[in-house]
Amino acid sequence: xxxxxxxxxxxxxxxxxxxxxxxxxxxxxxxxxxxxxxxxxxxxxxxxxxxxxxxxxxxxxxxxxxxxxxxxxxxxxxxxxxxxxxxxxxxxxxxxxxxxxxxxxxxxxxxxxxxxxxxxxxxxxxxxxxxxxxxxxxxxxxxxxxxxxxxxxxxxxxxxxxxxxxxxxxxxxxxxxxxxxxxxxxxxxxxxxxxxxxxxxxxxxxxxxxxxxxxxxxxxxxxxxxxxxxxxxxxxxxxxxxxxxxxxxxxxxxxxxxxxxxxxxxxxxxxxxxxxxxxxxxxxxxxxxxxxxxxxxxxxxxxxxxxxxxxxxxx
Length: 315
Known about the structure:
3-stranded antiparallel beta sheet, 35% helix
């Protein structure tokens, strides 16, 4: 039960849901069960199909494992769905998309489909119980040994099983005034974002000020997430950190804030956190990127390409 609740905290699951922990354990367990039954079924494969239209998906039920096997074909040339491609098979595993060899370790992985809120949650509304859960979740021990994101589907999609393979797909582009390295699949959505932001800046002084204050847009960097043994999505070239020249004395990243405020970093008011303009965040989301500022362990410079999550939550 505790592990499931900690999983929800990473991605800022509904605070009203988390507050149910103040009620009876049986009611909380029932809500968790209802959530899994409602959202993690195989019917949700459609969000992957919609998010990656050039990838061919099919499914079949496996009576032996009592789970669905999802077969995907990733095109050798992005966008060429009818051309040659690489074939992979994964078990649905509550939306984790695991290879058969990892089914025995299914409890170590989160679902790839989770709650990404439309509206930024205010930390002022956190209960004492939620604060303690966040502290426990963000602890060094839990980040090292706790469950994490299964990378198997993404490694197949982006050919990132190794650094050598992945870097064959890394391209250098100019984005919002800076050169950066990204996965080739990011060229089209990032170009759309840039065009929309530049157009908006012509009539919106806040957006223009945001552009003028950008120091760098750091994307591809092969690395492990701090305090864990898992690859960062920067390692795939599908995440971008938009770093400002000046933060105006505001906090931008939970771990840096924790160094200054070890017990209260999660309570830092929104007005004291640096963040891009709301309209810019919306543009990123329109093109399939989630924003790290909506996570409880906030990362306000961070955008990550997950169109399946945008469709799962916003549609």
